[in-house]
From TrEMBL:
InterPro entries: FAD-dep_OxRdtase, FAD/NAD-bd_sf. This is Glycine/D-amino acid oxidase-like deaminating enzyme. Keywords: Oxidoreductase. Residues 7-358 form the FAD dependent oxidoreductase domain. The keyword Transferase does not apply. Gene3D superfamilies: D-Amino Acid Oxidase, subunit A, domain 2, FAD/NAD(P)-binding domain. It comes from Geomicrobium sediminis.
Length: 389
């Protein structure tokens, strides 16, 4: 059993933890940074199993600004992150993001549009003709219109994560591929982590970015936060007849989404709320809960072949479905970045940037992420989104 020392420990080396490590070091942080990752191949990480949707169509200032910042980064990711021997390709497809709406939903969309426009999002309301212009095969019988943002779209989450990992390592981060058993949060002696193999690492700053596993670690350490892990399934299929245009990431009023994935398609939905770590995947789920909806919505989806799919975990915040970011008010040096509730890919660059500023300067500079602070639950200052599925 060894005990080692560093300046800053990050538990969880997925897209969030690796973005934080990268941003700290890229901003000139001089301390020793260690990132702990138990799943070397990232087989079960939420990042590897993400649908990769990027949208500006949020309804709170903080979420819109997080997404705007991240989109800007993703557009330039290749140029910013490439170095000798590493050429990241994140496959950003700016094909748009579209919420389809029934009559009752359209007035809400008009409301959302006001804030989005104030903040510079190029969202627009589409009528039936506008929808058919983009997706000629759409059945608009029971649809009044939609809200659409052409700049948004989707990307390859695994490649984004690799971009941050490789650059964090290049700048000096050490990755330890082992499991953290417990957080040690003791400001009098020292903060740190205990490993399953018996080793202990000490550092004044510990960041918990362990995704769907983070809440359990925080609870064990005596700092519970309202986050559970929720399984979410993704289904990949092919159609006999190709669609005329590339699809935006399209959200049906039922909460079922679909988009192109290369020449194929993927789809998923807001499943029942049953917290677990169950990675099982069932064809029957698609046949019962998704096919009837997408088959009704898009002509060629009536005749499709389900090819494959997977299940990943959301770190779901049960109170307001948004990320929890910042230092814990009762544990000096303990920072959290979890609870992303299904929208962490479009927030990862901004969260890394923001948290690195908070740690190095004691305040946010580029973006104000304080609405997502830990204290909001006690202060009854929840961040309520009208557009999370
Ligand atoms: C099916 C699905 C669809 C999604 N679709 C979208 C989308 O369209 N758009 C969007 O923005 N977001 C989406 N998300 C959410 C997004 O993917 C996540 O918010 C984001 O990937 C979270 O990144 P993370 O680094 O926090 O978690 P992870 O990628 O899970 O990384 C956390 C890491 O911590 C490691 N870890 C955990 N415990 C320990 C421990 N004790 N010791 C050491 N290591 C540990 C894990 O192995 C893991 O690699 C989706 C997620 C899923 C599952």
């Amino acid at each position: 059993m060894n005990s080692k020392h560093a300046d800053l420990l990050i538990v969880g080396g997925g897209v969030i933890g690796s973005s934080i490590a990268y941003h700290l070091l890229n901003a000139g942080y001089e301390g020793k940074v260690i990132v702990f990752e138990k799943d070397r191949k990232y087989e079960y990480s939420s990042t590897s199993r993400s649908a990769g949707g990027i949208r500006q169509l949020f309804t709170t200032k903080v979420n819109i600004e997080l997404s705007q910042y991240s989109l800007h980064v993703y557009k330039n990711f290749h140029e910013t992150m490439k170095f000798d021997g590493f050429d990241p390709e994140i496959d950003l497809k700016q094909r748009g993001y579209l919420f389809l709406g029934t009559d009752e939903m359209m007035s809400k969309f008009e409301e959302h549009l006001k804030l989005q426009h104030q903040l510079g999002v190029n969202s627009e309301i589409l009528d039936k003709a506008g929808l058919l212009n983009r997706i000629p095969e759409l059945n608009v019988e029971d649809i009044a219109g939609g809200i659409y943002c052409s700049e948004s779209g989707y990307l390859d989450p695994y490649s984004v994560m690799q971009g941050y990992i490789k650059n964090a390592k290049r700048l000096g981060a050490e990755y330890v591929y082992d499991e953290v058993a417990d957080l040690v949060l003791d400001e009098v002696f020292q903060n740190g982590v205990k490993m399953t193999n018996g080793d202990t690492y000490y550092a004044p700053i510990v960041i918990n970015s362990a995704g769907a596993w983070a809440s359990q670690l925080s609870q064990q350490a005596g700092y519970p936060l309202p986050v559970v892990s929720l399984p979410r399934r993704v289904f990949q299929f092919d159609t006999e007849v190709p669609l005329q245009n590339p699809l935006p990431l399209t959200m049906d009023p039922t909460g079922v989404y679909f988009r192109h994935e290369g020449e194929h398609f993927i789809s998923g939905y807001a499943e029942d709320y049953v917290p677990s770590m169950d990675f099982s995947w069932k064809r029957q789920d698609f046949i019962e809960n998704i096919w009837p909806i997408i088959g009704h919505r898009v002509g060629p989806f009536e005749q499709l072949k389900l090819q494959s799919g997977w299940t990943g975990l959301y770190d779901h915040n049960t109170e307001d479905h948004n990320a929890i970011i910042g230092e814990h008010p009762e544990a000096k040096g303990y920072y959290v970045a979890f609870g992303f509730s299904g929208h962490g890919m479009q927030q990862a660059p901004a969260v890394g940037r923001g948290l690195s500023e908070l740690i190095m300067k004691g305040k946010y500079d580029t973006l104000d992420l304080s609405p997502l602070r830990v204290e909001r639950f006690k202060e009854n200052a929840l961040v309520i989104e009208d557009a999370i599925y």
